[in-house]
Amino acid sequence: MNDPEYTAVLANVVKHFKSGPVLVRAVDGVSLQLPRGKMVALRGPSGCGKSTLLNLFGALDRPDSGDIVVDGIDVGRLKGGDEVDYRRRKVGFVFQMFNLMPSLTALENVMLPMELAGGMGPAARKQKAESLLERVKLAPDRYTRRPTRLSGGEQQRVAIARALANDPALILADEPTANLDSTTGGQVISLLRRLADDKRTVVVATHDNSIAQKADVVISMSDGKLMGKWAEEDSEAESARVSS
Ligand SMILES: Nc1ncnc2c1ncn2[C@@H]1O[C@H](COP(=O)(O)OP(=O)(O)O)[C@@H](O)[C@H]1O
Ligand SMILES: [Mg+2]
């Protein structure tokens, strides 16, 4: 199934963790459709399952049951290294702690995913990385700096450029503004907003109300379940509203 209208479709996705004798229902029967080219905010209290859900989208973790289809790929059933390939080509991750490679410059951090995916020569990689850094408005004199010599906001810009390196179908951002002051955080949100305006699909897990305000769709989670209209069986009305 490669639905042109939706980047991702989840049906009855379950991921539970055993913590000693306790069963934690981190993701507990989630069904949703992510419309293409939209910014989706995933909200809910700490521990409600936001990161687990993003990890499932990104094949960093595997569901116990249910279906996850991203850009026509049956993500929950990837194996034999296909999940590595999927992560490199189809998703871009942006993390709370930026997670750049400390030994590489800003430019090299953005070039790395292209190198891992293969198929581009060094000159083409450099040119593309420069254009991505330009797009996230990193000052050119920062391109050759390592992460320790960049501010938090600058590091997150580099991380967003890196997430775009292989033109992914889906950008997954897990609390991307949690370690930034509100002005810098606002700039990062505007960048993510612009990605959606450029027809990318962006999912942002967040506590930050200003992100939800900029999002096209807000999904609320509680105890591993979706709340409100997303919890209903028929989400067509919402999808229609979103895509109109
Ligand atoms: N690897 C894991 N092992 C055991 N429990 C986990 C693991 N990952 C997450 N959990 C639990 O699953 C629940 C959801 O966690 P998480 O997805 O990180 O929530 P959020 O990102 O919304 O704060 C929490 O109760 C958390 O402790
Ligand atoms: Mg989390």
Describe this structure in words.
With 244 residues, this protein is α/β, with parallel strands linked by helices. It has a single domain, classed as Rossmann fold (3-Layer(aba) Sandwich). 35% of the residues lie in helices and 26% in strands. It has 8 helices and 10 strands. The chain has helices at residues 50-57, 82-90, 106-117, 122-135, 152-163, 182-197, 209-214, 236-243, and strands at residues 6-19, 22-35, 39-43, 65-70, 73-74, 91-94, 170-174, 201-205, 217-222, 225-226. The strands form 2 sheets. A 6-stranded mixed sheet has the order 6-7-8-3-9-10. A 4-stranded antiparallel sheet has the order 2-1-4-5. The radius of gyration is 18 Å and the shape is globular. The two termini are 23 Å apart. The structure holds adenosine-5'-diphosphate and magnesium ion (MG).
What would the keywords be for this entry?
10 strands, six-stranded mixed β-sheet, alpha/beta, single chain, binds magnesium ion, four-stranded antiparallel β-sheet, Rossmann fold, binds adenosine-5'-diphosphate, about 240 residues
CATH architecture: 3-Layer(aba) Sandwich
**In terms of per-residue confidence, which ranges show pLDDT below 50 for 5 or more consecutive residues?**
233-244
Bound molecules: adenosine-5'-diphosphate, magnesium ion
Oligomer, anyone? Answer: single chain
Strand arrangement, major sheet: 6-7-8-3-9-10
Strands, count: 10
Write the CATH fold name: Rossmann fold
Kindly state the mean pLDDT as a whole number?
92
Topology diagram in text:
Elements: E1 6-19, E2 22-35, E3 39-43, H1 50-57, E4 65-70, E5 73-74, H2 82-90, E6 91-94, H3 106-117, H4 122-135, H5 152-163, E7 170-174, H6 182-197, E8 201-205, H7 209-214, E9 217-222, E10 225-226, H8 236-243
Parallel strand pairs: 3-8, 3-9, 6-7, 7-8
Antiparallel strand pairs: 1-2, 1-4, 4-5, 9-10
This protein binds adenosine-5'-diphosphate and magnesium ion (MG).
